[in-house]
Amino acid sequence: MTPPSAHDSEPPEPRVLCDARPPADAPPVPAGVPWKPAESGRQPDANLVRLAPGGRVAPHAEADLDVLLYVVSGGGVLGAGTGDEPRPLAEGATVRLPYGSTRSIGAGEDGLTHLTVHRRRPGMRIGRPGEVS
């Protein structure tokens, strides 16, 4: 018997990946990344990130990717480049973080849960010294 080819397989089906909202009676959720896609070859890529009350994502710049950030719950502050005023983040805020921009995130007293969506990063490749891949 011949294994099915990609042309013979069923088309992918839409599916619910996660519910970003914790149940109302749930204990506090620890900080971290409680969800990210596991499928290989996926586009776009995404991460659900929880920051504990007072938690921070240190200032950094993303050199290659635009990132879309959506605040699922909680609130905090978006810090930007040197000299820019911090901007408040509240539930429902959607922010475009253009590649090359410097940004940081600080969670407020209730913590902050946000979803980031961006193009998938290419995998690392190993080559000979000086070889560009």
UniProtKB/TrEMBL annotation:
Superkingdom as given in the UniProt entry: Bacteria
Family annotation (InterPro entries): RmlC-like_jellyroll (IPR014710), RmlC_Cupin_sf (IPR011051)
Chain segments carrying region Disordered: 1-43
Comp. bias regions, Basic and acidic residues: 7-18
Name of this chain's protein: Cupin domain-containing protein
Organism: Streptomyces spiralis
